[in-house]
Structures are given as structure tokens and as C-alpha cells.
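Sorry, explain these C-alpha cells?

***
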Amino acid sequence: MANTAQARKRARQAVKQNAHNSSQRSTLRTAVKAVRKAIEAGDKTAAAQVFLASVSTIDRIADKKIIHKNKAARHKSRLAAALKALA
């Protein structure tokens, strides 16, 4: 339990920030799943478009430090490899 005004405020901020970060992580997972689904469908052009959109999302979330930049790079690399293998 927070005892000072500052600690109470930081606790409130932490709850709000946690909710926002959780939402952003969910957006990331949705973007990755969308690319995987497009790749499984077998349409390379559609998958490439979804991939470009998801790369933007992944980079934006990494820039905000919600995920580590290396994790973002790993996601992008694996999705790109899967897209390339679709040929």
C-alpha cells in the first residue's frame, strides 16, 4: 500500500501504463498472427502487404520500448524468412 502522495500517484500511473502497454503487446501479437495467416493462405502478394504493415507496427512498438529492439528484429526476420519460403 502506497503511503505517500507520490507513491499513490505512481501506483495510479503504473496501472494506466500497464493497461496501455498490454494493449500494444496485443496489437503486436495480432500483427504477427495476421502475417502468419496470410502466409498459410499461400497468397504471396497479400502476405507481402500484410508483412509490410506488421513491420511498421513491430518497429513502432519497439521504438516505444514496449518490446526490446532485438525481439522486434527477431520477429521481422522470422516473418521475412517465412514469406521468402512461400515462393
Summary: The radius of gyration is 17 Å. The mean pLDDT is 96. Residues 5 and 57 are 36 Å apart (CA to CA). The chain has one domain: 5-85.
